[in-house]
Each structure stands twice: as C-alpha cells, then as structure tokens.
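Supplementary Note 3. Input sequence used for the single-chain structure prediction.
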Amino acid sequence: MQVASKNSGRTSISVSLHLGFVLTGVVNTMLGPLLPILSSRWALNDAQAGYLFTAQFTGSILGVLGSSFFGSRRGPRFTLSLGLLSMALGSATLFLGNRALGLTSAFIFGIGLGLTIPTTNLLISELNATRRAAALNLVNFSWGLGAVACPFVVAFLQRAHSGSDLLFAVAALLVILAAVVVRTLPAMQRQEVPPLVESSHQIWRSRFVPILGSIFFLYVGTEAAVGGWVASYAKRMMTEQSNTWAMMPSFFWAALLLGRAFAPLGLRRIPEITMARAGLVTSAVGIVALHSAKNGSALAISVALAGLGLSSVFPIAIAALSQQFGTAASRVAGLTFALAGLGGATLPWLVGYASTWYGSLKFGLLVPLCGCLAMLLLHAVLGDTGRSTEDKRFSHTSA
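The predicted structure, written as discrete structure tokens, is reproduced below.
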C-alpha cells in the first residue's frame, strides 16, 4: 500500500514538472514571435528591441546562481515555486506598460527561467535514479513542445487582436502550478558532492576550459539569435497579409526538437565531433538560405535547416564537458553555463544593433552565421586537442 502511494506521489510530481516545463518552453521562447508586436507597440528600432533578449538572459544568469543558493538552503520546493511565480509575474506585466516596464518584465521572467530549468532537471534526475538519461530527455521534450506551440498560439491570437491573452493565460497557469508544487512536492535531502581529486589549479589550466566555454557562449547566443529574430525577419519579408510570420520560430524549434530525438541513432555510427561539425555546416547553410529566401515556404525550410543543424551541438558540448573533466565537470559547468547565458544576452542584441546600424535585419542575421563558423573552428581545435590528449595518455601508458 505504501509502495503504491509512493509511486502515485512520484507520478504526480513528475506530471507537475512536465507541465511546468511545457510552460517554461513557452516563456523561454515567446519573445521571438512577440517581438514584432512589442516593437510596434513601443516604437522600438532593432537595437532597442534587442535589449529585451539581454534583459531576459541577464535575469536567467542571476536565476541560475539563485537556484544553487536557494536549492542548498531552502530546498527545491521553494526554488521551483519562486521560479514559477517569477515567470508568472514577468509574463503578466510584459504588455502592461512602457518599454522600461517591458525590460523589467523580461528580466523577471528570465530570473524565473534560471531558477526553474536547473531545479526541474535536478528533480527529474533524483526521481528517476535508474533511468536518468531517458527521463531528462523526456522532460526536455516537454520543454520543446512549449517552444514549438508558442508561435502558433501567438499567430492565432493575433488574428483575434488579443496577443496579451497568451501572457495572462500562461501567468495564470504558472500560478496554479506553483500552488500544486507547494502542495505535492516533498522536501528532498541534498546529496553531498564528493570531493574533487583534481586540484583547482590543474582544472583551470586545461585548454578545454576556454574552448568549451566559447562553444557554450556562441551556441546559446546563436540559437537565441535565430529563434528570437526570425519572426521579425519573416514579417518584413512576407508581402501577403497574414500572420504566418509569427509561426516561423516554430519551424526552428520543431527541427531542433526532431534533431535531438534522432541524434542518438546517428551517434551510434558517427563520432560526436564529426556530428557536431556536420550540424554546424548544415545550420550555416540554413542561415545562408534564409538570407536568400523569397517566400514563406523557402523561409520555413531555411529556418528548419538551421534548427536541425544546431540540434546536436549543445548536447555534444555537455558530453565533452563531462568526458574531459570527469568529477570536476560540475565545477567547470558553473563557468560554462554562465558564459552560455552571457551569449544569449549578447548575440541577439548584437543582431538588433547591426540591423539598426546598417539598416537591414538581413545584415544583422549575419551574426548567427558568424557564430556557426566560429563554432566550426572551435570544434576543429577541440578535436585536435582531444587527439593530442589521447596521444599523450597513450605514450604515458606505453612508457
């Protein structure tokens, strides 16, 4: 009887976490399809609109730091509830005032994202100790569902001239979910982290630290730049009177989701670095095609190609982090994930700045193309560094 009750409790918690991650996917990506609306509402140029992404990702960095602080002192229930309520507050107030309030709202829901995403992943990992990888893939699939659905909902509501309804509905659902989390989530014991064998000096001297840190910075910035600006680009490019421009980010996120679902099959035959390089070439081709697209169909294919190419890059970077640093990976991860957030705060803003400076969003979207090319170069160095390390280990073993 107790076993059945315990399993029922775990199921309820898992369902709540999955629903929360669907909403997290919506909040995480909603600035993209909403950006043309917000720009028109507040008379923003692209450089000014780019600051919305900077506000969101700056808040996210602080939220990630807060998740570690609150998680160790108040537990995951408090941390997750605070994150959900922060996202609700930021979402509900985004349309209520002027640009200053909008930036503040983006910053607040960014904090909520930073609190919620790592806490949810850790909880799912703890609840599924015997099948962590599968469970984490599944919960992040739920995030992807929210990301894919959001632009379609925005397009539907735009037809009814009620774009703010999405924000209020998401905020209400987040508040309800926060109440459910407080009621159902038990306090969990924080596991002690085993002491590191490697010294800090040896860790930070590794050549992999700046390489992987740069990849994390460029990847998140490139992903946010394409997903965040493609709706604005589509609206300016498409001449027909429709709201299909708002759906364009969905093709990007759907391809990203699909690519991550099938990447494990490819990795059985293809080395990780090779797959990452092939993906970056594919994404670069997609962004180039995006620049030359003449209609909505061509644009959708180009955006999907860019998303498909990027799909395996981030998971492979995380795997490389774990592979190279072992038990010290958690220490290096703090820096790399902070750099990832910094990339999200920087590159989408740089797209807007370049667009305003040169008078063309097409020029601004060269930023993510440069990001792909830079990551290609870094993966070439990463592969050479990895082979060099393996050779040294082999020579040492032979000696």
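Residues 1-5, 189-199, 389-399 have pLDDT under 50 and may be disordered. Residues 209 and 332 are 7 Å apart (CA to CA).
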